[in-house]
Amino acid sequence: MTTLEQKPARAEGRKDPWSQMLEKVGKHQDRQAYHALFEHFGPQIKYYAMANGLASHAEELVQEVFVSIWRRSCLYDWRKAAASTWIFTIARNQRIDMLRKMKRTSAEMQVETEDLWQIPGENEDEPVTSLHRLMSERRIRESLSHLPEEQITVIAKVYMENKSHQMVADELDIPLGTVKSRVRLALNKLKVILQDQNV
Amino acid sequence: MTRHHPDSLTLMEYSAGNLTEPHALCIRLHLDQCSHCRSRVDTLDSLGAVMMEHQPKVDVSESMFDSILSRIDSDTGENEVVTRVINGMSPLQKLLGEDLDTLPWKRQLGDVSVLDISERFPGQSEQVVLQKLAAGGKAPAHTHRGEETTIVLQGAFADQKGVFNQWDCVVLNDSDEHKAVAVGCEDCITLSVLSAPVKLTGTFTRMLNPFIR
């Protein structure tokens, strides 16, 4: 963590309150901060579980996510991800893990959930990209309000209800190509598509 | 150097956690080696976080927080999560071991060997196939149905669309004419996920994609 001490000044002001809380949990096992995170993100994660068909296991998922947040918090680096992004990926991974475990025994699973879904490089030090990452979350939050409802609906179904583009097309009774073009338009406006071509 | 990347829509399905396990493995292996795509997925994860924030909230009880606290209080000193992250093997090593060359390859036509590993992903309908094209070897042309995602694990191959190097991702469908040649001095090994329902009746050569079309 030496680079943290070397270059805190510029980006310090960008650290949002939730990232500060999460950092306190990671560094000092601060239970007050942990409780604040629970109050803020717990209701979001419970809805997430209910939206994607885990209604009867919603509280269980919230618990698994928070236990995982506690155990992983020492790996959290606010320069690499805002707390909300970091917690979203944990919620996603725990949801996948819960569904896998419901379907089969652990002996059948040669590859762990994290092997497939945890983005590599949690320990690598790439401070140059951090500013870009933190800004991207802020930018997305700001520009989401300018998107047409039909684009937000499609993205919400993909992220919250975990429907594939094909399933979204079937449900909304529109062609797959329309779903894809709505997603592309949205990602373009959100500047998620930086370079889709070869680099 | 990686030059062929998954498209943003696929990365979005990855970020949302909606891909099947073998398909997710292809993307994960690419991300392992491609900081460009890691950064794209980071941004997409942020989109997921913002979407979650925009949804309704459902009350959670204080008693739930108490049970969470008792869970973490019963943690022993050893933090398994952290140990696993630090000492983790690559998913490919876990799945296939250290050496791709010593796998029980099945020799097919000419320069092509295959290994079907679909059973490593129980409950998935997709076919998952490793393919090896001997260094300098040519794969005979063949027809193809459905869509297939392929990642190059070793060596490189070339076809009409270009040269595909290690960790490049390529999606092929039935409109693609495909005649692959292994380039360089290494055998070319790929991992392919065939999403369309596949019928193997009669001909075994269906398994030989993407080398054989």
Folded structure, characterized:
The complex is a heterodimer of chains A (199) and B (213). Chain A folds into 2 domains: 15-118, Orthogonal Bundle (Rna Polymerase Sigma Factor, Chain: A); 146-199, Orthogonal Bundle (Arc Repressor Mutant, subunit A), CATH 1.10.10.10. In chain A, α4 packs across α5. With 199 residues, chain A is mainly α. Chain A has helices spanning 2-6, 9-12, 17-28, 31-51, 58-72, 83-103, 113-117, 127-144, 149-159, 165-172, 176-189. Helices cover 67% and strands 0% of the residues of chain A. With 213 residues, chain B is α+β, with helices and mostly antiparallel strands. In chain B, α1 packs across α3 and α2 (21-33) crosses α3. In chain B, the strands form 2 sheets. Chain B has a 6-stranded antiparallel beta sheet with strand order 1-2-3-9-4-7, with helices on one face. Chain B has a 3-stranded antiparallel beta sheet with strand order 6-5-8, with no helix packed on it. Chain B has 2 domains: 8-92, Orthogonal Bundle (Arc Repressor Mutant, subunit A), CATH 1.10.10.1320; 100-208, Jelly Rolls (Sandwich). Chain B has 6 helices and 9 strands. Chains A and B meet through α4, α5, α6, α7 and α8 of A and α1, α2, α3, α4 and α5 of B.
